[in-house]
Amino acid sequence: MLIKRAEDLRWSDITPRSLYLRRREFIQAASGAVAGGVAALLSPVDARAQGNGAKLPNVKKSGWGTGETPTPYEAITTYNNFYELGVDKGDPSRNAASLRTRPWTVSIEGLVAKPGKYSYDDLVKPYQLEERIYRLRCVEGWSMVIPWVGFPLADLLTQVAPTPKARFVEFTTLMAPDQFPGQRRPVLDWPYTEGLRLDEAMNPLTLLAVGLYGEVLPNQDGAPIRLVVPWKYGFKSIKSIVRIRLVEKQPRTAWEKSQPDEYGFYSNVNPEVDHPRWSQARERRIGEFLKRPTLKFNGYGDQVASMYTGMDLRKNF
């Protein structure tokens, strides 16, 4: 299978939105069924859960923005890393219909005063949704500017009240090989896990996203709820979260377990630290021809650099 790099991406590779929004017709014509013999035609509820233009109500415009033009919706929704839906950049949008996002439950566990299982509505409705335009920098060297919709993770963590021993937050993606074709292959040690230090999780920039461009988050972008940590490489922003666990010891993450010499726990965007197989000094913004210099902490140093005072960011990569 040919995996295209960002520098090889042509705009002809990006599915027009009109075709993307007709995904149900494509799936029916192509196969008539998804894995496990489930019919590929989506119910109206499934269609809304996948996005398809459904607007999110009462979204507040926030002061968090980059001043840059956001990446087109078509690119954000058709050029993705989401290995549960396939390793090729186009696989997630092609396979997105297999993920069922309703009903959805997120379990809050571990060192918190108020653990529990929350439905999607119970988890999201108490909070004011806001739009935040963040840079996304992928470890492979490409980047986007995305208008996420969500609420600060700190709001949720404050509600569930971490105990004094809690030092890290561990996140887990849904494990469902019948819905995630990528999980039928040992690409990673499934389910996907990620983690943050508690102070990173409580930083005002850290977002639980449920949408983009004012619309319900599409499946291929991590529906129904995902993490967004804009000063770290994109793989830290775990998708389709089903568990948030507060722990005392640093959790092992999916990519650390797979390739610890390439993917460290912190994974802060740092142009001074090369990936073992390529430089991280420059990046290609999707939709642009020329590369641009990569900014340390992805340009969010004023908000986050103080958390790493005294740390060796080459050793703690």
Task: Give descriptors for this structure.
10 helices, Sulfite Oxidase, Chain A, domain 2, alpha+beta, 317 residues, five-stranded mixed sheet
Major sheet summary line: 8 strands, mixed
Distance between the termini: 30 Å
How large a portion of the residues is in β-strands, by DSSP E? 15-25%
User: Structural class, from helix and strand content?
Assistant: alpha+beta
* Tally of domains: 1
Low-confidence stretches: 1-50
State the CATH topology: Sulfite Oxidase, Chain A, domain 2
Number of helices: 10
The value of Rg in angstroms is: 19 Å
Write a structural description.
The protein has about 325 residues and is of the alpha+beta class. The chain has a single domain (about 5-310), classed as Oxidoreductase, molybdopterin-binding domain (Sulfite Oxidase, Chain A, domain 2), CATH 3.90.420.10. The protein is built from ten helices and 15 strands. It has helices at about 15-20, 25-30, 45-50, 75, 90-95, 120-125, 155-160, 200, 255-260, 300-305; strands at about 35, 40, 60, 105-110, 115-120, 130-135, 140-150, 170-175, 195, 205-210, 215, 225-230, 240-245, 280-285, 290-295. The strands form three sheets. Strands 3, 6, 7, 10, 11, 12, 14 and 15 form an eight-stranded mixed β-sheet that branches. A five-stranded mixed β-sheet has the order 5-4-13-8-9. Strands 1-2 form a two-stranded antiparallel sheet. A hairpin with a 4-residue loop joins strand 6 and strand 7. It is globular and about 45 Å long. Residues about 1-50 have low confidence and may be disordered.
